[in-house]
Design goal:
Number of strands: 0
Low-confidence stretches: none
Largest sheet: none
Strand content: under 5%
Distance between the termini: 54 Å
Helix content: over 70%
Order of helices and strands: HHHHHHHHHHHH
């Protein structure tokens, strides 16, 4: 039986991630934020158990890894809260495009500022057009609309996810990435349980099959499974090739929301998303090395 190339697994992972925004839109309609956030983390934690068994890697927890886990747990909770309100009051397709395309730009800028990295001219150009693309998608020319609408939550999501990405990049020296994701979801589950215990956490059992399908899809397929595929493929193909597949996420997010939620394809999202994807390309473009010249 022939082996399936990792490229195909990555396409599936990007499809699962893209569909997650539409699933989130479905589950935000009837349940409050604290209930949805708790159940997302709880189901995600459970879904990691068979994955942990499958990879058969010994769990190693040290002081350094705990710092990264706690920091990422806080940022992940903030991301879940912001994405809940953003998708509840905005469009799922817009969320998938704005957050996915702006996060890499903000991650690069954050790393450059924190570690004082010297940028190349093409990277400055990438950041410049990234700002333009973000401005188009967020409709910053309508300040009142931006402040009062969902776009402010989408921007906050992109900022928070940039922090999560930066921490995860440096955490891999101390802890296996799948273990890292599992402990983040476990810590977040405990924290959100104590926060939401005054609410009706069992209210989800009054929901219909569509709600449960969307919730399980989001927590298991859209997070645990897709993330695990991404990490495994990264180890086999390298981070540069793997990261290029991220461009598929906003495309899938937009068209899944169009097909299943009847969301309109907004012109400013299409244009701004394309500009932002170009920005990510220029930021990550490697400098060509000149061949040695004969003396």
């Amino acid at each position: 039986m022939p082996k399936i190339p990792y490229h195909y697994y990555l396409i599936v992972a990007m499809l699962l991630w893209g569909g997650g925004w539409s699933a989130l839109k479905v589950i935000t309609q009837n349940q409050p934020m604290e209930v949805i956030v708790f159940w997302r983390f709880f189901i995600m934690s459970l879904s990691f158990l068979p994955i942990l068994y499958f990879i058969k890697e010994p769990i190693k927890l040290g002081k350094s890894s705990l710092k990264f886990i706690l920091g990422s747990s806080v940022l992940n909770i903030g991301f879940m809260v912001s994405s809940y309100f953003g998708v509840k009051y905005g469009l799922a397709g817009s969320a998938g495009v704005i957050i996915t395309t702006l996060s890499p730009v903000m991650t690069f800028l954050l790393v450059a500022l924190v570690f004082q990295k010297r940028l190349r001219n093409i990277q400055y150009f990438g950041l410049f057009i990234g700002v333009i693309g973000g401005g188009v998608m967020l409709e910053l020319h309508h300040i009142e609309k931006f402040v009062e609408g969902a776009n402010l939550f989408f921007l906050l999501c992109a900022l928070l996810w940039a922090g999560v990405t930066m921490l995860s990049q440096y955490s891999q020296v101390h802890i296996h990435p799948v273990h890292y994701s599992f402990f983040i979801s476990l810590v977040a589950t405990i924290a959100t349980f104590f926060y939401g215990m005054q609410s009706n956490l069992l209210g989800v059992f009054e929901e219909d099959a569509t709600f449960w399908f969307a919730l399980i899809y989001l927590a298991v397929l859209g997070q645990s499974v897709a993330t695990t595929i991404f990490y495994i493929a990264s180890g086999k193909l390298g981070s540069e090739k793997t990261s290029s597949f991220m461009f598929l996420v906003p495309v899938f997010a937009l068209f899944i929301a169009y097909l299943f939620l009847d969301e309109p394809l907004q012109t400013h999202i299409l244009i701004g998303g394309a500009i932002s994807m170009a920005a990510v390309y220029f930021i990550n473009k490697k400098e060509r090395t000149k061949p040695p010249q004969d003396s």
